[in-house]
Structures are given as structure tokens and as C-alpha cells.
Amino acid sequence: IIAIDEKFYAENGEFHESGIGYPHYGSYSGIGSWAPLGVYYGGIFGRCSDHFASLAIRCIDNSERVTNYVNYCDQRLYYFRSDHDPANGPPNPNHDITQYPVDAPPHWSFVISAPGNMPGGLQINAIFGDEEMDGHGATCVGRWLAWRHLGAPTNGWFTSPRADVYGKSPWQSTIDSTEFICWLMDYYPSRDTVYCEGETTGWTGGFEPYPSYLCMTALKCSAEMADAMGDSEKAAHWRSYADRIHHGMTNELTVTHNGNPAWQKRANSVYPSYQDTLAQAWFSFYYDGLDPNVLHADLTEISRNTFDRQINQPWEHAQVLGMGYGQGWLAKSALILDQMDDAGPLLMNLAKYSYDKNMDYVDEARGIDWRLYQWIIPEGANILPDGSWYRISDLGNGANQGIALHALELCAGIDDTHPETFKILPRTPAPLTGIIVRDFPVLVPEGAGLARAKVDYSYTRYPPAFSLTSDRTLPTLSIRLGPYTQSEATTISGTLLLPPGAVLRTEISGEYNGGDAYWIWVEGMTHVDSVTIPVPEPGLIFTIQ
Predict the structure, then answer these.
(1) Mind giving me the DSSP string for 370-402?
(2) Strands 378-383 and 389-395: what pairing?
(3) Are 532 and 466 in contact (CB under 8 A)?
(4) Would you give per-residue pLDDT tens digits along the chain (545 residues)?
(5) Which of 479, 477, 476, 474 minimizes the C-alpha distance to 461?
(6) Which residues contact 205 (CB under 8 A, 6 or more apart)?
(7) Contact 484, 510 (CB under 8 A)
(8) Which of 62, 124, 180, 302 matches a 20 to 30 Å C-alpha distance to 152?
(9) Which residues are CB-contacts of 208 (< 8 A; sequence separation ≥ 6)?
(10) Across-strand partners of 465?
(11) Rounded distance, CA 323 to CA 271, Å?
């Protein structure tokens, strides 16, 4: 988080992929000494609105950064347009306006900071600058997250023209960016999924689960903003396209694995172990929440089948060539799908292969304190035949760093996707026995908008113990305890002392200890400032710190 804070500038909203001077080592297959390059510092990538910008928006108190993040993204949105008029967007001399459809809304491409330039000079279609729709969708969702953490406003800044964004308000930019998804889908009327170019498609074009699901989520997020604005027509319009993607994904983007439907994978995808195919699992926590039993059942079943395929690749729990794009996405999927026997080893290997014992020193002659990078998340790791490993490429790489940290965020289990029905779902796979969370931001209703509360909680899995305090009253609270075996759940359900008004419910989801994972919900609590479970018996004293 400190590294993210350093490269995500509050004063202008730029979120750089690499830190200044951060070490780089030999790319994915090379060898060589570390060089203080900050190799991707110049790149600001749309899909990193998910990967790491969202962590700072949520976890660091800085409203200036959140506001300027939206402004920066919106400035770059208007590069792609049918003119070169500087009053309508940033300079776009490399953009061939004769090739850009006059009716096309603006969009973000692979590199937000340099939309008209491609790595290696690649040009996938007639327009210079690829339509990387996973990045476009992620940026739409990132803006929605920022809007929520600014209080979900419906006037003032949100509806006011911005001189530095060509007279466009944030709401107008929401409309423009969301309509591009609809426009692009209509451009391919025979398909109900989202066309994409870039790393997901191996620098070609095609239709894949990752961009389709992110754009489906983006449409639903924008529809929520339209609801807040009282524009039911736009909300219904955008949800209809989200529904179209939902059905399109199940009809167009599946293959068969062990006799069951699984998400297709693209052989030339840049992502090393194809964990982009699990996007419905690892991206769902933004809008749909952290409870797999309330996600879209049909999509989630396909993701479970896909997870079975992915975890049984030869690398099993160490798919670390991409620390975020491989190991991180797989760990997030295991956590969301409650595959706890897999989640534990995946989390352990995230930590293990991000560590370098050789960096425990200071190079005084060169003025480099290598200890700063001893535990930093790398772009990936190479494992040698003897079991030793070395980290590769960009240390602190935002696209991989953020994904790994999201896995830890899922362990905390804070689910405020629907602030009026706040949930906590701690996930503590072995060897974890519990978790302590301090000063974690939570969205709560305030009038017609939202406000940020801070919660502290501690949880021990068995025997169960949970305590929470909040600096604002939580309108409702539901807590999920687990995972447990069937016998553990039966014992706890019959003996757990509950707070007044709380009710207990047991459900099965995922796997734990070689069998079904049992979870115990404590629900029905309202107007909560603090809670302790189990309730202390008379004469006992509990202290909440």
C-alpha cells in the first residue's frame, strides 16, 4: 500500500505502473543484475484501475486523489474522437479521424497515458491504439468506486462542467464511456459479448470472458449511478446490455472440461497461466459482493468448473510466473469460491515467492537500500528445478502487486457492495487460524448518499470468537463464521451465544479439510456500533481494544 501511495499522485490523479527507480530484473525469461529502472513508470494502464488504483481509493483517506483520479481518466477518455479540435479533447495527432466512426463515443485504450501509441508499434485495426475493453471496463468500475467513496453525489462536482475536461461533467463522462460499450456491442450484432484487443487476445482481436465480464460489471455500475441521478431510462438501457453479455458469455464463451462447461481460454493470451478465464470469480467482489451463494448461479458454476481446470495445471498452487496475473487471480478465485483447501497454499506461495533473502542489505556505495524491496510483490518469479527461485521483471509492478493485495483484502471479507446490508465474511484458510483488521474503510448510507466509516474487528475461527467496533453506526450487520467441518458446524450451531435479535443460519459452500465447507451466518443485527460473539456469559468480562 505504501508503494502504491508513492506512485499514485494525489495532485493530478496519475497512477503509474512502476515506482520511480524501482528494480527491474531480466523480464520474464531473462537473467541479469537488478537495474533501478522503474521500467513501466511511463505507463498508466486502464485495467490497473482494478489492479491497484482501487486499493488506494478504498484504503487511503485522500479525497483529492480520488477526485483527481476521475478527472485524469476523463481527460484521457476524449483522445478518441472524430476531430482534432483541442477544445474537445487532448492532442491526438496520431489519430486518423478519417477512420474513426463519427457516431462512436470516446473510449480508453490499452495505455491511458499514451492512447495513440502501442508497444512495438503494433496496430491491430484501422485505428492506431487498441480497444482493450478489459481496461475500459475496469476504468468505468474504478470511476464508480471513486464516486461511491466521494459520497455518491448527484450534484455539485458530479454534474458540474470541468474546464480541464473539455467542459464535461463526471456524469457526462460516465454516459460517454458507458455508451461506448453499447456502441461496440452493436458494431458486432451477431455477438452478445464484447470485442477486445490487447494482451487478453495476444495482440489480436476477439471475444473473451475477461473483457466481457468487466464490461458487464461496468454497465451495472453505471446503471447504479443513473439510478442515483433519477435517470431510469439510461439505467434500464445499460442493464439490458449487461443482461445481453450475461447470456452471451454462457452461450458463446464456454468449452467443455470433464464433461462440464468451463470458460474458454485463448492460446495466445499474454497472461502466463490463463487465469484471466476466471474473471467472473475474481472480479465479482466489486459489484456483486463476496458471498458466492448470491452471485449469478449459472456463471459461478462455470467458474467452479474452470477453477478445477486451472488449479490442476502442472504448476498447481505455484502459478507464479505472473504473481498477480497468475497466482493472484487464482488465489482470489479460490477465496471467492470458498475453495479453502486451495486458498491456503495459494496465499502461502504468494508470500513465499515474493520474498528474496538476498536483498537483506544496504549498498552504501551506490546508495541503495535493498531492504525496501525484500518483500515487495514482483511481476513474477521463476522456480528452478531444485526448488529455489528468483523474482523477475518489475518489483512493485502495479498490475501484479494490486491483484495479490486484493487477495488479502478478500481474507478480511469486508462486503459493503450494498451498504444498507453490510456483511463481513472473514476467510482464514490453513495455516491461518484467525484475522485482525484495523481501521478498515466501510461505506454506510448517509441521507441519499454514502459516508465512510472505519471498523476494527478480530476473528478466531475455532472455537469461534468475533469482536467488532465501528466509528459510525452500521444499519445492519451479518457475519459469516468459518470454514468448518460438518461436525464443527453442528457443535457450534447448538452452543453459540448470540447477540439480541441475531439469528443463526448454516450453509455449505466450497471445500474445506477434504470435504464440504460449512459456514455459520450470524444475521439480523441492526444499529450496530459494537458486537461480541459469543455473547459473554454473566460474570465474564470481555475487553474490546
Answers:
(1) GGGGSSPPEEEEEE-TTS-EEEEEEET-HHHHH
(2) antiparallel
(3) yes
(4) 999 999 999 999 999 999 999 999 887 776 778 888 999 999 999 999 999 999 999 999 999 999 999 999 999 999 999 999 999 999 998 888 998 999 999 999 999 998 876 544 457 787 877 889 999 999 999 999 999 999 999 999 999 999 999 999 999 999 999 999 999 999 999 999 999 998 999 989 999 999 999 999 999 999 999 999 999 999 999 999 999 999 999 999 999 999 999 999 999 999 999 999 999 999 999 999 999 999 999 999 999 999 999 999 999 999 999 999 999 999 999 999 999 999 999 999 999 999 999 899 999 998 889 999 999 999 999 999 999 999 999 999 999 999 999 999 999 999 999 999 999 999 999 999 999 999 999 999 999 999 999 999 999 999 999 999 999 999 999 999 999 999 999 999 999 999 989 999 999 999 999 999 999 999 999 999 999 998 654 433 323 23
(5) 479
(6) 124, 125, 131, 195, 196, 197
(7) no
(8) 180
(9) 193, 196, 200, 201, 253, 264, 266, 269, 276
(10) 460
(11) 10
Q: What is each CA distance from 164 to 46, 89, 174, 457, in whole angstroms?
A: 20, 10, 16, 42
Residue ranges per structural domain of the chain: 413-533
Q: How many separate helices (H) and strands (E) can be counted in the chain? A: 14, 17
Tell me the pairing of strands 465-484 and 368-369: unpaired
Q: Tell me phi and psi for residue 91, to 5 degrees.
A: -55, 135
Question: How would you classify the pairing of strands 465-484 and 423-424?
Answer: parallel
Take residue 47 and report the three cell numbers written for it. 485495467
Residue with cell 461506448: 180
Cell triple for 457: 474487528
Q: Which residues pair with 24 in a beta bridge?
A: 35, 394
The C-alpha R_g of the chain, in whole angstroms, comes to: 23
Q: d(Cα 154, Cα 226) in Å, to the nearest integer?
A: 9
- Grid cell digits, residue 69: 483520479
Q: Answer for the pair 515, 485: CB distance below 8 angstroms, yes or no.
A: yes
pTM of the predicted model over 0.90: yes
Cβ within 8 Å of residue 131, ≥6 positions away: 107, 109, 124, 125, 184, 195, 196, 197, 198, 205
What is the C-alpha to C-alpha distance for residues 150 and 211, in angstroms, rounded to an integer? 27
By the 8 A CB rule, do 419 and 447 touch? no
Cell triple for 421:
446490508
C-alpha cell at 487: 461436525
Would you tell me how many other CB atoms lie within 10 Å of the CB of residue 537? 7
Helix (H), strand (E) at residue 183: helix 170-187
